[in-house]
Amino acid sequence: MENEMPQFATQEALETFLKDDTNPQLAEERKQLKSLSLNAEYFTALPPEIAKLVNLELLDLQDSRVSSLPGELGQLSKLRLLDLSNTCIRTLPAELGQLTNLEVLDIQTTNVTELPKVICELTNLQTLVMGNNFIEKIPPEVSQLVNLTKLDLSLSDNVPAGIEQFPRLETLELLAADFPDFPVELTKVKQLKNLNLRYAEVINFPPEFGNLTNLQSLNLSRTIFSELPPEIGKLTNLKTLDLSRCKIKTLPAEIGNLKKLEILLIQQSTLKELPPEIGQLANLEQLYLDHSRLKSLPPEISQLTKLQLLDLNSTEVDLLPPEIGQLQSLELLKCNYLNFKELPKEIQQLQNLQYIVLSNTRLESFPEELLSLANLRGISIKGTRIKELPEELVNLKNLKQLDIEKTSIWEVPDEIENMPGLEIKKPSRAPSIRAQYSRSSLLKTGDVIGNQGVDLDMMGHFGTDTQQEETQVKQTLAIFFDELGFTIKTNTPDETT
Q1: Fewest C-beta in 10 Å: which of 34, 107, 245, 312?
Q2: Position 119 in a domain
Q3: Is 201 part of a structural domain of the chain?
């Protein structure tokens, strides 16, 4: 019974549950109840009888229309989480201080204007969520919250004065915060380890930003700033830096000072180049550059000897440098949608490589360099122009995944087919006409020019083996092209369909 949360369809039903002392079954349910969710607009008040829920640990009033809290709330001595977010509550009762087991308090998007001094009595409080409200000042009493390590000010347009008074604050959430200048007040929280500014409107960083020397994780993804400040180089304890979807074009040279950095994310950004100093990130293990505008990798990439993951998917890199062969710790290399026809011979030096993604590249033959990578477990050449697999592939005894979808590899050698534990994703024998030839792709330059038409090799494009299959494909094409407003000419001795 204690795991079942009662459902109340009305405010009246809630009050009946709490007030009815004539029903022994209800009394027992109240005693056993540990979690109560009242997150609906039809809940307008929290009855004083809430005190009867002596074992309640979680109380969720999010999105309700409750505007005040009864003093009896303080009798819920086992309460660990109290969610008041997005309510009309204006003040927190003094009895709140009696909730000495409370670990999480959420007052985000309320009308609360100040934190009561009794908050200092919440000695087990670990997380305080208070963004997007009217609190302008943090009372000095918060210095007694020795277990509070996380503060969430997301959606805020200001940072309350006195924020540095939280003695052990390690994580600060400023998701979608609305201030163009990074608040100097935040730089006073010297012990801060994790800072999340995702979606924030911040543009400028003060010189004091470099004072956050204990930061280990910094999330600046989807922010609107266009240049990473040089002070980033002073954050020498950073282990994770997220610049995804930012408008930066390059990184400052000071990035090389981040000797402890392990994860760097710059995907889906406007990044065009990496500075030579990238090679100084001696402990970097994961580098995400996918969907950026990166055109090439600097030779210094070879110095990243601890790099385990390199994601270049959908970048503008059209050639892998020979230095890539020096990434001796690399386990996963992702090169989906890159515009290259071959791999550098140095790729065969990556003896720890386990997975390589070469999908939708311009490869026309299976890279022989991969045949010497004994630890390979997965290969994807999906969507390439490769037409056959080398029999030597059987020597890759650890290979478990092989993706050859959307290729013209119609026959897989039996020796490869029978490799123990190998899962092969094969091309369809009858590819979808609509999927491969949408109207937009047919209208690309070079595909259709005026009335010249399109020359299609049925065997090459669709893998037809017999005249009957070819006729069927032509009939399907005729219907499809007719819908697009095109026509297909019938064969003559001098013409091709």
Answers
A1: 34
A2: yes
A3: no
